[in-house]
Amino acid sequence: MLSNAQLLQLAIATPLGAALIIACGLPKRFSTKLAAAAFTAPLLIALWLWSQFPAENAHQYAYLSTTYTGLAAFGISLKLGLNGIALPMFLLAAIVGLAAGLYALRSGAERLKLYLVLLLVMHGGLLGVFASVDIFFFYFFHELALIPTFIMVGIWGGRDRNYAAMKLTIYLTAGAMLSLLGLIALYVKSGANSFDLIELKDAVAAQALAGHTQNWIGGLLLLGFGTLVSLWPLHTWAPLGYGAAPSSAAMLHAGVLKKFGLYGLIQIAIPLIPLGLQHWAWKLALLAGIGNVLVVGFVTMAQRDLKQMLGYSSVMHMGYCFLGIAALSTIGTGGVVLLMVAHGLSVALLFLLATSIHHRTHTFDLSEMGGLAQKTPVLAAFFVAATMAGIGLPGFANFWGELTVFVALWKFSHALTAVAVAGVIISAVYGLRAAARVFFGPASEQLQRVTAQHPPADLDWKEKLPALILLAALLLFGFYPKAISQPVDQALNPAPVTLTAPAR
Amino acid sequence: MSTELLKAVAASNEWWALGPEIILACAALGLLVLELATPKAQHRFIPHAAGMALAVVLVGVAFNFGKIWDGEELFGGLIRLSLPGQVARVFFLLSSLLVCFLATVCLPRARVPRVEFYHLLLVVTAALMLLAQSNHFVMFFVALETVTIGFYILVSYYRERASSLEAGLKYLVLGALSSAILLFGIVLLYGAVGRVEAGGVVHTGFEFGTVLTFLRENPGNFLATAGALLVIGGVAFKIGAFPFQIWVPDVYQGAPTPVTAFLAVSSKAAGFAVLLLLVHGAFAPLAGVLVPVLSLLAAATILFGNLSALTQRNTKRLMGLSGVAHAGYLLIGVVASFTVPWAAGAVWFYLFTYLLASMAVFGVMAYVAGPDDIGEELDHYARLARERPFLGAVLAVGVGSLAGIPPLAGFMGKLLLFLAAFHAQLYGLLAVAIVGVVISIFYYFGWIKAAWFESWTPPAAGTDSPARPLPAGPKWVGVAALALLTFATVLLGFFQAPLSGWLLPR
């Protein structure tokens, strides 16, 4: 019987191994079956690990395992494990990965095998990101997941796919390089000469980094991670990229991969360089509050293209996450983790439904739609539910995330809290307006022509299943947020976010 | 010959220590004999014989890797055995073996005599191996000239083509200039050091050890410093570092593809082997002068290489100019190695990853090129991934590794260099390198884009250019070689133990 640490390794290895087997030339009918199994296995393992997660852990981490890759002398080794913050994110990656995979299996994309291979690599990379204790491999797995995104946008993308793929690649590579520099700076300046997060934390606990060092490392990390998470004004790749990306790639990227930067800030920056973050907190909060929430919020309202709108709205919601981090408090950090999970689920669901809508209307243009609810009531119900979740209605997981972030923000700045709450109204306006345009009111002439040619069918089971998985998770965490908040609380409370000056 | 002399020769291990080079030289002559002795129908096996010779020597060196007499000087101080020297031997043998493979793909398409190519290849390989182990400026210069003259011939090997001859001429003129600079530097050093008598033995300024002692005792000597800088300038020509990179694009484009690969990999690596040898040996006391000079060189090389590669559409020029940028990253490693000892190992690690990736890309280029390998444009790669998915995948991995994208080996090479630079506190150079890497993503990505994303563009109807024939698929040797290179590039991305064990001992 495998130990839990080995199960964790297996969860990451399964999609990657399946990708390798399919790439080596497995026939198509076996490939789809193998892919389905490889998308499912990590979720089962993640659920098992979640149920087994112990209340007390040495170093806060459970399921630790170390594999040497030949650079142990440089403090680089594949160290896997989960703590209370990583566990919900790991679960998120497994859930969204399964949904995206199931949706891809039924998509009937051209060159389906290559599509599945890339998606499996991405899935494996995402699981690896959140299971890595070694921050080198944390970065490594992120890139492993990122590269397939570029290729998927380039090959299966919608309009402007070449430009979008190029822009995505350059922005995200630049952001990743900057954050890598920040991580190397931590490696060298902490004196740990190791990328092992536990050793780094020990080194910083013994001798905190000097104030100005924390400041510039914090700046590097915020700039790098900020680009990856689409902090205003470095967000322009996101709507373009998501607009062009094929549905499953958009689901995984917007839902999970984009959280990498936030997760890095919470897991690495807050414990290691709290003063550096404090130095930048107000600048970050202003950029996120005014830029991401207000400016991008208004831009979102003006969108006429459904997928672009979703892209902008995900940029806007990242603003809340940044605000929660800028608040630099335990409750703010916990709220961001909740919000990351909730937003990941809801945005993935929205991208999935947007593509399903496109299959029926053959357009993403909001002004050319209307009245779809009569023909596809189940699709309409799902979409309205996902929109409500995105707005943050009680009952959905997003509500708890936003609420805790607002509470934390109130202590930080009253004005910014007001801005953030105004953002909720903005997101209600564009969300509900989009739902109304697509599903209610009279159908446009063009849509009537299209529907006359291809009578729209309601969601079939193969589409319903991934959507149901996501919606169920949203509701589960909405009614039982303790599932996430308890491990997060356990990870944050023994080492609350403190802002004491280091002894020099 | 008297029996005493034979006994003395047999008793000393000096000749055994040079066994690999001697075997290669004999094999090179053997190839010519084979051509005379065998009927013409059997000549097609001569390339295989050359490849076999290289492979046998490679295996021999690899198996005796730990059994060298580290630090021992041979032939009165002409050669010094060392661990980096062994690493260099393995590197050059591996590179030549792959060049040999490329030549079997490319040469049959042109009507040129073939045997001489392999003969020269073996001779140049032996000279490269001696160069990396030299301990004496005369040995150094003779080995370097053997390499350079071999390259003059190889670059203009397609002697019926104007472009190949033009490239050969350019390489000849500029190479002669660089040799002159190098020689002038050696002479200045010789003049400054003079003759030193110690314990009844006369030492001259040709010996690395004597130069080291002299520089240590006379740190401010202008003549010697100028000489050292001129020698570095001559080496910078080999590396293709700014401002000695002028020859790179034209020569790379005009030379036959296998020779381009040989230049890009072995010649560049030889420059770095020598540079590391000199800055940590004879020129070590000049660190105060060399660090700023090399730093400036590195920054200018990175920026020049990446910016000039940005608009290239010709793949060979692109490889040349991006190779200039790689030389810049490697120079950062050299600068860092002044304060961080393991940075030299990181430079070698990078060179090995560069070898694997470059050879994979050149391999794909050799198959895509067809008979005219000068005018190979990025546009010719359209639909490659669709029609030859294997070549497309190899290209993507190779180019991705050159761009330094994880999880490929090239990323680990860059990471180790950056780590070394960070330890050495070279923040300015790091910033330049990051800018360079981001720029390089653009053109490398353009190449992958051409091969993978343009696959649905239908060929424009009505254009006067005739449809390019489908590139020939590789035979099983080609498949095996390219698959091995690709596999190694991916494997080293996350499992570095095979290389780190002997390059980065700590």
Walk me through what this model shows:
The complex is a heterodimer of chains A (504) and B (506). Chain A has 504 residues and is mainly alpha-helical. Chain A contains 21 helices and 2 strands. Chain A has one domain (4-492). Chain A is 75% helix and 2% strand. In chain A, strands 1-2 form a two-stranded antiparallel sheet. Chain A starts with a helix and ends in a 12-residue tail after the last helix. Chain B has helices at residues 3-11, 14-17, 19-37, 46-63, 83-106, 115-131, 137-155, 162-193, 208-217, 222-239, 248-254, 257-280, 287-309, 315-336, 343-369, 384-387, 389-403, 409-423, 427-452, 476-494, 497-503, and strands at 73-74, 79-80, 195-198, 201-204. Chain B is mainly α and 506 residues long. Chain B contains 21 helices and 4 strands. The A-B interface holds A 68-71, 73-74, 78, 136, 139-140, 143-144, 147, 150-151, 154-155, 161-162, 165-166, 169-170, 173-174, 177-178, 180-181, 184-185, 187-188 and B 400, 405-407, 411, 415-416, 418-419, 422-423, 430, 434, 437-438, 441-442, 445-446, 449, 452-453, 455, 494-501, 504, 506.
Task: Write a brief caption for the model.
Helices cover 75% and strands 2% of the residues of chain A. By secondary structure, chain A is mainly alpha-helical.
What is this structure's SSE topology?
The complex is a heterodimer of chains A (504) and B (506).
Chain A: H1 4-23, H2 28-52, E1 62-67, E2 78-82, H3 86-105, H4 112-131, H5 135-156, H6 161-189, H7 197-206, H8 211-228, H9 237-244, H10 247-257, H11 259-272, H12 274-301, H13 306-326, H14 330-361, H15 372-375, H16 377-391, H17 397-412, H18 414-439, H19 445-453, H20 461-479, H21 482-492
Antiparallel strand pairs in A: 1-2
Chain B: H1 3-11, H2 14-17, H3 19-37, H4 46-63, E1 73-74, E2 79-80, H5 83-106, H6 115-131, H7 137-155, H8 162-193, E3 195-198, E4 201-204, H9 208-217, H10 222-239, H11 248-254, H12 257-280, H13 287-309, H14 315-336, H15 343-369, H16 384-387, H17 389-403, H18 409-423, H19 427-452, H20 476-494, H21 497-503
Antiparallel strand pairs in B: 1-2, 3-4
Helix pairs in contact in B: 3-4, 3-6, 4-5, 4-6, 5-6, 5-12, 5-15, 6-7, 7-8, 7-12, 8-10, 8-11, 10-12, 11-12, 11-14, 12-14, 12-15, 13-14, 13-19, 14-15, 14-18, 14-19, 15-17, 15-18, 15-20, 17-19, 17-20, 18-20
